[in-house]
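Lab notebook, design round three. We kept the backbone fixed and only want residue identities now. Task for the bench partner: fill in a sequence for the structure below.
Input C-alpha cells:
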C-alpha cells in the first residue's frame, strides 16, 4: 500500500499551532499583549480549548490545533489583522460541536454576549445548519452552501471559511480516509469553495497545490 504521508507544502508557521504558548506568542507579533483585541483572541482560544479538551482529529492530534491553524493561516497567508475575524476563526467549529453533543452552550446569544455581534455574525455564517427531523443531510448541505452564494460579497466570511477548508484539505490523504471520500471533498471544494477563492483572491496558490496533491493520490488508486 502506498503511504502518502503529510501534505508536502505545509507552512512552517503552523508548527506554532502545537501548543497554547507557541500560538499566543505568534499572535503577539501582531497584537499588543495588553490590548483588548489580544484579550479577546485569548478568551476565544481558551474557551475553544476547554470545549474540545478530549477530542482528537483523524491524524490523532488534539482538536484545538485545527482552529489554531485556521487562525494562523488567516493571519499569515490571508493577511487578516482584524481581531474579530481571528476570534471567529478560533470559534468556527464550536457551535456545530455543541449541537452534536447537545450541550446547549454555544448559542448565538452566548457568542454575542461573550464577544460581540460581529464575531457572532461570522460564526453563524460558517456554522453548518443542524440536520433536523424532516430535513435530510443533503438538504442541510445544500442550504449551507447556498448561504455562501447569498453572502458572496462578504469577504470577511471567506477570510474565516477558506482557511478552515484549506487546513481540512491539507490534513487529508488516502492513508486515513477512503478514496471515494477524498474524491467527494475535492469535488465539493471545486464546486463550492474554489469560486470564492478566485473571486476574493484568497489562498489561490495554496488551494491549487493541495487540490493537485489530492488529485494525484486519487489517480493512483482505482
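Proposed sequence:
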Amino acid at each position: 500500500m502506498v503511504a502518502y504521508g503529510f501534505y508536502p507544502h505545509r507552512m512552517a508557521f503552523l508548527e506554532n499551532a502545537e501548543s497554547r504558548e507557541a500560538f499566543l506568542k505568534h499572535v503577539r507579533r501582531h497584537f499588543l499583549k495588553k490590548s483588548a483585541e489580544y484579550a479577546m483572541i485569548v478568551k476565544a482560544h481558551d474557551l475553544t480549548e476547554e470545549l474540545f479538551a478530549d477530542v482528537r482529529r483523524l491524524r490523532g492530534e488534539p482538536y484545538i490545533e485545527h482552529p489554531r491553524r485556521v487562525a494562523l493561516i488567516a493571519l499569515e497567508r490571508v493577511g487578516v489583522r482584524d481581531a474579530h475575524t481571528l476570534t471567529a476563526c478560533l470559534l468556527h467549529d464550536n457551535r456545530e460541536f455543541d449541537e452534536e453533543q447537545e450541550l446547549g452552550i454555544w448559542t448565538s446569544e452566548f457568542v454575542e454576549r461573550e464577544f460581540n455581534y460581529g464575531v457572532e455574525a461570522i460564526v453563524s455564517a460558517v456554522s453548518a445548519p443542524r440536520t433536523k427531523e424532516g430535513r435530510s443531510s443533503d438538504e442541510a448541505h445544500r442550504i449551507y452552501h447556498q448561504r455562501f452564494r447569498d453572502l458572496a460579497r462578504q469577504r470577511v466570511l471567506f477570510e474565516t471559511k477558506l482557511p478552515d477548508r484549506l487546513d481540512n484539505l491539507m490534513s487529508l490523504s488516502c492513508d486515513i480516509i477512503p478514496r471515494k471520500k477524498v474524491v467527494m471533498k475535492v469535488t465539493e471544494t471545486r464546486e463550492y469553495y474554489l469560486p470564492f477563492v478566485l473571486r476574493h483572491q484568497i489562498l489561490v496558490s495554496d488551494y491549487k497545490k493541495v487540490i493537485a496533491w489530492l488529485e494525484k493520490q486519487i489517480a493512483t488508486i482505482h
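Keep this in mind before ordering anything: The chain has a mean pLDDT of 93.
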